[in-house]
Design goal:
Structural class: mainly alpha
Number of strands: 0
Shape: flat
Number of helices: 14
């Protein structure tokens, strides 16, 4: 009897705890969604172009989206951002996975020292190198209107230092698979591409997602390299440039909100469709190695 009462008490306690957790999560979700709902409402407001003191528009329409594509260089900014994100995602994924597999499977002199050096260098803020990077890119005429290839070069230059999560994932894959393939005559490259990669789908997708999202929302370095040249801007810099003065803020605020909605859509769809693999990649790589 006492055991049943204790069991019922534990169930009631767990039910109450879960209820409180769900309520907290719902509140947090609502708080996170409020700015996006506000952004969407503002993007469809057509009775005025400046900031107002209410959220629900008095008049709805798609004028802001039409004007964004017809009266600004937003298509150019979006194209630049997509090109940068695509190239960085492909190149950085190849570099990161190759470096991670090498550090996970191979043992060579200086391996630990190399890992420690990359770990220490990764602790320094990236903006410390902005001046010298700009000088180097300017020597090769990769700033201003030609900033897209310059940004791609900078984003992928230190990709190998982001090996931590991927290496942890590779450490969870049994090395006996490598040894069996090597005994059958497979090369290291064949083991990597034909044995390990099919088993590493979560970490591959995780690496692609993180590599694509980083340049998609970059602002500071992209603005520094583009230096007010519209042809070389990404969406973050271009949209900020639309509201950089009080006058332009009043004239372009609702178009700015429309641009924010459009920029968020591809990343949201990509992340939601691949969320399962993203979580598996993070948790699978969170091991000591």
């Amino acid at each position: 009897m006492a055991e049943n009462k204790r069991h019922m008490g534990m169930k009631a306690k767990n039910r109450l705890s879960n209820t409180l957790i769900y309520i907290l999560l719902i509140i947090i979700s609502i708080v996170w969604l409020i700015p996006f709902v506000f952004l969407v409402c503002e993007s469809f407001r057509v009775e005025s172009t400046y900031q107002v003191g209410y959220v629900i528009p008095h008049q709805w329409g798609i004028d802001n989206y039409v004007n964004l594509f017809t009266k600004t260089d937003f298509p150019v900014w979006f194209k630049n951002t997509f090109i940068i994100g695509l190239f960085v995602a492909v190149i950085q994924t190849i570099i990161v996975l190759s470096m991670s597999y090498t550090l996970s499977r191979l043992r060579f002199k200086g391996r630990k020292f190399l890992m420690n050096v990359m770990l220490i260098l990764g602790m320094f803020p990236g903006f410390l190198t902005m001046i010298i990077l700009y000088k180097v890119l300017s020597w090769f005429n990769l700033t201003g209107a030609n900033s897209v290839p310059g940004l791609i070069l900078v984003y992928v230059a230190s990709s190998g230092m982001g090996y931590y999560v991927s290496k942890g994932f590779f450490d969870t894959i049994s090395k006996s698979l490598d040894e069996a393939a090597r005994v059958d005559g497979a090369t290291r490259f064949q083991v990597f591409t034909k044995i390990i990669m099919p088993l590493a789908k979560p970490i591959v997708i995780y690496t692609i997602l993180t590599a694509f999202m980083a340049p998609w929302g970059d602002f500071m370095f992209a603005k520094y390299i583009a230096h007010a040249t519209s042809a070389g801007m990404n969406v973050a810099v271009g949209l900020q440039n639309m509201i950089s003065t009080p006058q332009s803020l009043s004239a372009n605020y609702t178009m700015f909100c429309a641009g924010g909605v459009i920029v968020a859509i591809p990343i949201t769809i990509l992340f939601m469709s691949l969320q399962k693999y993203y979580v598996e990649g993070v948790t699978g790589g969170a091991v000591k190695g």
